[in-house]
Automatic annotation (TrEMBL), chains A, B:
One function term, GO molecular function aspect: sodium:proton antiporter activity
Membrane topology, from the record: Multi-pass membrane protein
Lineage of producing organism: Eukaryota, Metazoa, Chordata, Craniata, Vertebrata
Spans through the membrane: 7-26, 32-53, 65-82, 94-117, 129-148, 160-182, 203-224, 244-266, 287-310, 316-337, 357-375, 387-407
Domain of life the protein comes from: Eukaryota
GO biological process: regulation of intracellular pH; sodium ion import across plasma membrane
Native source organism of the sequence: Cyprinodon variegatus (Sheepshead minnow)
Gene3D superfamilies assigned to the protein according to its UniProt record, in alphabetical order: 6.10.140.1330, 6.10.250.2020
Domain Sodium/hydrogen exchanger regulatory region as annotated: residue spans: 501-602
The protein, known as: Sodium/hydrogen exchanger
Family membership noted in the UniProt record: Belongs to the monovalent cation:proton antiporter 1 (CPA1) transporter (TC 2.A.36) family.
Xref: NCBIfam families: b_cpa1
C-alpha cells in the first residue's frame, strides 16, 4: 500500500503544529518576532539536519501541491473572514493598489533589472527582458500574514488595515495572472504590440471571469444549504466542496482561481450561516480557520526547509539590486498611487499611512511557490529561485521584525473603531438611509445608493431564494443575533469554567464569581430586552418605508421626487421620539415589570424545592 | 497541473452528498428503506449510465484509497462516539462474538464451501481449501451501519445494541487479520500444523499490538492538547493527526490498524474534550461525524457503481451456496455462542435477542474492499468478487429492509435506559462504590473493583499528566457539565430561533414561546443549583473516602480488613440523611432564597431601565 504519502504529510503537519505550540508556550517571543520568522527558522534547522544526513527534500512540496492543496485553504480563510463592510467601502482603493500597484511593481522592477543586466560586470547579460518581467511579477506579490498580525496587535486605523488586507488578497490573483502571461510571453521569440493589447484584455477576462465563477458557486452553495436541515452532519462539507470546486473549475478554465474562491466565500457566507445550524456554523468557521492556519504554517516551514535543501545560484549584483529595486519601486509606487487616489477618498492617507503601506510589503508564500513553478527552459531558473528566497527572507525577517517597533514609534493613526455597539449600528443605518435619500434627490448616485438598491434586491429576491427561513432580517437584528450568540457562548464558557473550579475552591473566590455571573445573566437579560425593543421598532421603520416606496414606485415611476419626499417624511415620522418611546415602554414593561418580577422568584423557589425533595427522596438512604 | 484527481474526488463527494440530501427531502423513504440501500441503488443507476457511455469506472476507488482514506474516518467515528459505559460492561460478550464468532463463521463457511467445491456439477473444483477460507474470511465481516440505524430507531435494548455495535467494530479487525493470514496461507503450497499455531499466535499479537499502539497514541494526543490553549484554531487537527498516525503506524507494523484507531479514539476522547475549548470540542465532534458520514455514503455509492462496471463471473451453485452458508453459519453461531456466554451474563440473551443478532448480520464495506484487494494470482478472483457483491446486495437489501418490520413484529425487548438522569447516575455511582467495597471484603474482584482501581489511578496520575486543569472531577460533575452545556446550547438555539422569528410573528405565538423560554431558564437555574449541591456533597464523600484510604493504606498495608470496614463506615456516615440534608439546605438557601430573590428582580429592573434610558438618549432624535 502506498502508505508513505499520507504518513509523510501527517508527520510534517504534526511537526509544524508542534512548532506552533512551542512558540506560544513561550508567549513573549511571538510578540516581537512574527510567527512566520520563527517557522522559517525552524524550517531552516530541519533543513540543515536533513541536508547533513543527505536526506532528499520533502517529496510533499511541489508547486502542484501548493497550488492545489495549500493555497485554497489560505485564500478561503481570508475571503471568509474578510470584514465585509470596510472592504466594500474601500474597494476602489483596494483594487487600485492591487491591480495598478502590482503592475507598477512588476514593470518597474522588471525594466530596472533588465537595465542592470546590461552591465557586463554582473555576468547576467543572458537574461532577456521577458524573463526579467516574469521574475519581477513573481516578487511583486505581497504576503499579508506577518504584517496583518502586527497591524491587528497595534490596532492601526481601519483604512490602512483593510487596504493591506485587500491588496494582499487581490494582488495574489494579479500576480498569478501576470505570471501566466509572462511565462507565455517569455517563451515567445518576439513580442508584438498586439500581444500587449491581447494581454491586457486577457487580464480583465481572467479577473472578472474568476469573480463571476466565484459568485455563481457561492449562490449555488447557499441554495444547497437550504435543503440540508435533515443532514446536519455533512453541512460544513458543502462549504468546502463548493469553494474548492470554484477554485478548481476556475483553474480548469485558466481564469483567476484565487478570485473565484474569494468571491465564492464572500457570496455564500451570509446565506449559508443563516441556513445551517449553530453547531455547523461553529464547525465551518473553526475548520476554515484551522485549514488556513495549518497551510500557512506548513508553507513557511517548508520555505525554511527548501531554502537549505535547494541548490542555489548566488549572484551578488543581481540579488542585491533585486532587493533594492523591490524596496524602491514599492515605496515609489505607494507614494505616486496614494497621491492619485487621495482626492477620491473621504479619509485620505497621510505620510505615516503611506509608510505603513510601503513598509508592510513583505513577500511570502505566493512568490516562493511561483518561483518553483518556473518552467525548466528558463536559463537562470536557479538564480531566480535564489533571488526570490533571498527577498522573502530579507523582507520577512528584517521588515517583519522591525515593523512593530517602527509603527509604534512613528505613531501611525490608531483604529477609530470600537466594538460594534448598537448605537453605532443604528446611527450608521439611519445615516445610510438618509444618504441614499439625499443622493436620490441630488441625482448623484454613489455607493450608498447602490448599497440601498442591493439591500432591497437582496431582501426581495436573493434571500427568498437562498435562505430556508426567508423572512427579511435587518442587519441590526443580525448584529443582535451575533452578539447574543457570542454572549451565550461566553456565559457557557464561564459556567463550565466555574463548574470545573467549583469542587476544590473555597467560598470567597466563588462568591466573587457568583456575583460576576449574576451580573452577566443580568446583562443577557438586558440585551435580550434591548434586542426585542430595537428589532421590533427598527423593523417597523424599515418595513413601513420599504412598503411605502415599493407600493408607489411600481406604478408611478415618473414621480420620483414626490416619493422621495414622502419617504423622507416617513422616516422622520417613525423616528419621532413619542412614537418610539411609547412602543418601547409597552414592550419593556412586560418582561421586567414588578408584578412578574415578584412572581418569578417564588415560583422558581417552589420549583427548585420540589426538585430538591425529589433528589433527597431518591438517594439511597436505606443504607443507614 | 494534476487537477483531475481533486476535481473528480470533489465531484463524487458532491454527487453522494446530493443523493443524501435527496433522500431526506422525501423523508418517508428513509424510514422503511435504509439509506445504504438507497445509496447503492443510486450507485447502480450512475454505474449503468457510465457503462452505457463506456466510461471507465471511477479511478478514485481502489482498495488502497479505501483502506488509507475511507476506512479510518468511519472507524474513528465509531470509536469516538462509542457509548463507553455499556461497552465496557459488555466487553466480554462483545469480544466473544467478535473474535470467536468471526472465526466460527470463517471456518464454517470456508469448510462447507470447500465441500461444495468437490461436487463436479458446479464446475469449481479448482478452488482450494485455503482460497475458500480466504473468501469466507472476507464475507464474515459484519457491517453495522444499516442495522444500527434500525436498532436506534426502534430503540432495542441496550445489550443487543452494544453487542452488535462492538461486534461490528472488532470483527472488522479480526477479518482483516484473518484476511492477511489467509492470503499468506493461500500462496503457500502446503500448510503444516506449526503454521496454524503461528497463525493463532500472530492473531493475538496483531490484535493486542493494535490496542497498545492506539492507547499510546491516545495518551500522547491527550498530553499534547494540554498545551494548545494558545493555538485554539488548530486544536481539532491534533485529534485527527494522532488518530490517523495511530492507524498508519499500526498499518506499517502490520498490526491491526482498526484496533489502533478505535483504541486511540477511546483513550483520548475524555481527556481531549476537557482540554480543548468548547468551540474546538464542537468542531471535533462535528468533524468526526461528518468525515465518517461522507466516507460511508461514498462507499455504498461506489459499491453500486462498481457492481455495474466490474466484470463478473457468475456461478449459480457457488453463489447460492455462499448465501445459504453465510446465513446458516451466522444463525448457528449465534445460537451456540449465546448458549455458552449466557451463564456468564447478568442479563442473558433470550430467543428474540438471538434473532436480532443473527438477522442483523448484514455484510458491507469491509467485505467489498477486501474482495477487491484480493491478489491477482488467485484463480477465481472474479468469482469471489461477484459472490461478495451478491451477498452484500442480498443482505443489505433483503435483510436491511425487512429487519425493521420483523423486529417490531416479534417485539424484541426495548431499551431499558432513559435519558441519563441525575438520580440514575447517583444511584449507579453509589452502587458501584458499595459493590467495590463488598467485593474487596469478599476477596472476589470483578469489574467493579477494577473500575474503582482504574478511576483512582486515573484521578491520581493520568488526569494530572494529561489534563491542563488537573483537578479531579467526578463523573457526576462531568455529567452535569455535559447536561449544562447541552442545555445552554438548546437555550441558544431557542433564543436564536426566536430572534429570527420575532420581527414578523404576532404576539400570541410569541407569548407561548416566552413562557416556554422562562420555563427553560428556570430549568437551567434549578439544574445549576442542583449541580452545586450535588457536586459539593458528592465531592466531599469522594474526597473524604479517598483521603481516608490513602492515608492508611500506605503505611499499614497489612490491615486491609480494618480499612475496609472503616471505609464502609465512612461511606455510610457521609450518606446519612441528616448530614446531607443539612449541608444541602445550607447551600440551597443561598442562591434561591426569598431575601435574595426579592432583591434580584428590582436590581435587574433598575439596571435595565438605566440601559433603556441610555438607548433612548442616543437615538437620533434630533432629526425631528
Amino acid at each position: 500500500m502506498e502508505i508513505q504519502i499520507p504518513f509523510e504529510i501527517t508527520l510534517w503537519m504534526l511537526l509544524a503544529s508542534f512548532a506552533k505550540i512551542g512558540f506560544h508556550v513561550y508567549h513573549k517571543i511571538t510578540i516581537w518576532v512574527p510567527e512566520s520568522c520563527l517557522l522559517i527558522s525552524i524550517g531552516l534547522i530541519v533543513g540543515a539536519i536533513m541536508h547533513s544526513v543527505h536526506e532528499t527534500p520533502p517529496a510533499v512540496l511541489t508547486s502542484n501541491v501548493f497550488f492545489l492543496y495549500m493555497l485554497p485553504p489560505i485564500v478561503l480563510d481570508s475571503g471568509y473572514f474578510m470584514p465585509t463592510r470596510p472592504f466594500f467601502e474601500n474597494i476602489g482603493t483596494v483594487l487600485w493598489f492591487a491591480v495598478v500597484g502590482t503592475l507598477w511593481n512588476s514593470i518597474g522592477i522588471g525594466m530596472s533589472l533588465y537595465a542592470i543586466c546590461q552591465i557586463e560586470a554582473f555576468n547576467v547579460q543572458d537574461i532577456s527582458l521577458q524573463e526579467n518581467l516574469l521574475f519581477a511579477a513573481i516578487i511583486s506579490a505581497v504576503d499579508p500574514v506577518a504584517v496583518l498580525n502586527v497591524f491587528e496587535d497595534v490596532s492601526v486605523n481601519e483604512q490602512l488595515y483593510i487596504v493591506v488586507f485587500g491588496e494582499c488578497l487581490f494582488n495574489d490573483a494579479v500576480t498569478v495572472v501576470l505570471y501566466n502571461m509572462f511565462t507565455f510571453v517569455a517563451e515567445m521569440p518576439t513580442v508584438q504590440p498586439v500581444d500587449v493589447f491581447l494581454g491586457v484584455g486577457r487580464f480583465f477576462v481572467v479577473g472578472l471571469g474568476g469573480m463571476g465563477f466565484g459568485i455563481l458557486f457561492g449562490f449555488v452553495a447557499a441554495f444547497t444549504t437550504r435543503f440540508t436541515s435533515k443532514v446536519r452532519e455533512i453541512e460544513p462539507l458543502f462549504i468546502f466542496m463548493y469553494s474548492y470546486l470554484a477554485y478548481l473549475v476556475a483553474e480548469l478554465f485558466a481564469i483567476s482561481s484565487i478570485m473565484a474562491i474569494v468571491c465564492c466565500a464572500l457570496t455564500m457566507k451570509y446565506y449559508v450561516e443563516e441556513n445551517v445550524s449553530q453547531r455547523s456554523c461553529t464547525t465551518i468557521r473553526h475548520l476554515v480557520k484551522m485549514l488556513g492556519s495549518i497551510s500557512e504554517t506548513l508553507i513557511f516551514f517548508f520555505l525554511g526547509v527548501v531554502t537549505i535543501t535547494t541548490e542555489h545560484e548566488w549572484n551578488w549584483g543581481y540579488i542585491l539590486f533585486t532587493l533594492l529595486f523591490a524596496f524602491l519601486w514599492r515605496g515609489l509606487g505607494i507614494l505616486v498611487l496614494t497621491q492619485i487616489i487621495n482626492p477620491f477618498r473621504t479619509i485620505s492617507f497621510n505620510m505615516k499611512d503611506q509608510f505603513g503601506l510601503a513598509y508592510g510589503g513583505l513577500r511570502g508564500a505566493i512568490s516562493f511557490a511561483l518561483a518553483f513553478t518556473l518552467p525548466e527552459n528558463i536559463g537562470r531558473k536557479q538564480l531566480f529561485v535564489t533571488a526570490t528566497i533571498a527577498i522573502i527572507l530579507f523582507t520577512v525577517f528584517l521588515q517583519g521584525i522591525s515593523i512593530r517597533p517602527l509603527i509604534e514609534f512613528i505613531n501611525v493613526r490608531r483604529t477609530n473603531r470600537n466594538l460594534d455597539t448598537i448605537n453605532v449600528e443604528i446611527h450608521c443605518r439611519v445615516m445610510e438611509h438618509t444618504m441614499a435619500g439625499i443622493e436620490d434627490l441630488c441625482g448623484q448616485w454613489s455607493h450608498f445608493y447602490w448599497k440601498d438598491k442591493f439591500m432591497r434586491f437582496n431582501n426581495r429576491i436573493l434571500r427568498r431564494i437562498l435562505i430556508r427561513d426567508a423572512r427579511a432580517e435587518s442587519s441590526i437584528v443580525a448584529l443582535y443575533k451575533k452578539l447574543e450568540l457570542q454572549n451565550a457562548i461566553e456565559v457557557l464558557d464561564t459556567v463550565s469554567g466555574e463548574i470545573s473550579a467549583a469542587p476544590s475552591v473555597i467560598s470567597l473566590q466563588e462568591e466573587q464569581k457568583e456575583s460576576s455571573k449574576q451580573k452577566m445573566s443580568l446583562m443577557t437579560e438586558d440585551l435580550k430586552n434591548m434586542h426585542k425593543i430595537l428589532s421590533k421598532n427598527m423593523y417597523k421603520i424599515r418595513q413601513r418605508t420599504v412598503a411605502f416606496t415599493s407600493k408607489h414606485a411600481l406604478p408611478n415611476d415618473s414621480q420620483p421626487r414626490e416619493i422621495l419626499i414622502r419617504r423622507h417624511a416617513s422616516i422622520r415620522r417613525s423616528l419621532r421620539p413619542g412614537s418610539f418611546q411609547s412602543t418601547s415602554q409597552k414592550y419593556f414593561s412586560l418582561p421586567a415589570g414588578q408584578s412578574l418580577g415578584s412572581k418569578y422568584p417564588s415560583s422558581r423557589l417552589s420549583h427548585a424545592g420540589k426538585l430538591l425533595k425529589q433528589i433527597l427522596h431518591t438517594l439511597p438512604l436505606g443504607i443507614t
